[in-house]
Amino acid sequence: MALATSRPVPEPPPNQATGKIGEELAVDALRGMGYAILARRYRTRYGEIDIIAQDQDTLVFVEVKARRTDRFGTAAESVSGWKQRRIAAMALDYLSWVNRLDAPCRFDVVAIDGFGTSQATVNVIKDAFQTD
C-alpha cells in the first residue's frame, strides 16, 4: 500500500494575490451598490476583464486597480488609454459571445488606493471612460 505524500502548495505571486483580494473588495462594493455580478476574470484573446456586472438594464465592464501608494499615480490614473482600448475590445468580444451586441453598456473602474493599509479606500467610478 502506497502512502500519499503531501507537497506544499506554492503561494501565488504577490501581484496575483493582490489582484484577487482587490477583486473581492470590488465585488463587495459593487454588490453593495446593487450590481449583479455576471462574470469574473472573463478571458478573451485580448486579455481579461476583471468583472462583468449588471446595473439595472446596463451591462457594466469593470476594471479593478489596486495601489499601495500613489508613488506612480493613483489607482484610477493607472487605467491608460491603451488599457481602455483593450477593455473595449474584450467587451465587444463578450457582447458578441452572449449575443447582446445591442445591450446598453458602460465601463466602470474600481480604484483601491492605499491597498493593504488601514487607510485603504475603495472608489467605484461609474462611466469611467468612453469608447468610440
What does this protein look like?
This protein is an alpha+beta fold and 132 residues long. It has a single domain (14-129), classed as 3-Layer(aba) Sandwich (Trna Endonuclease, Chain: A, domain 1), CATH 3.40.1350. The chain contains two helices and five strands, in the order αβββαββ. It has a five-stranded mixed β-sheet with strand order 1-2-3-4-5, with helices on both faces.
Using brief descriptors, characterize the structure shown.
alpha+beta; Trna Endonuclease, Chain: A, domain 1; 132 residues; single chain; disordered N terminus; five-stranded mixed β-sheet
What Rg do the Cα atoms give? Answer: 17 Å
The profile of the biggest β sheet is: 5 strands, mixed
- Estimate the helix proportion, in percent: 25-40%
Q: Looking at the structure, what is the overall shape?
A: globular
Question: Which regions contain 5 or more consecutive residues with pLDDT less than 50?
Answer: 1-12
Gross CATH architecture: 3-Layer(aba) Sandwich
The first-to-last residue Cα distance is 65 Å
Return the domain count: 1
β-strand number? 5
Largest sheet strand order:
1-2-3-4-5
Give me the strand/helix succession.
HEEEHEE
As an assembly, this protein is single chain
Topology:
Blueprint: H1 14-32, E1 36-44, E2 47-55, E3 58-67, H2 81-97, E4 105-113, E5 121-129
Parallel strand pairs: 3-4
Antiparallel strand pairs: 1-2, 2-3, 4-5
Sum this structure up briefly.
It is built from 2 helices and 5 strands.
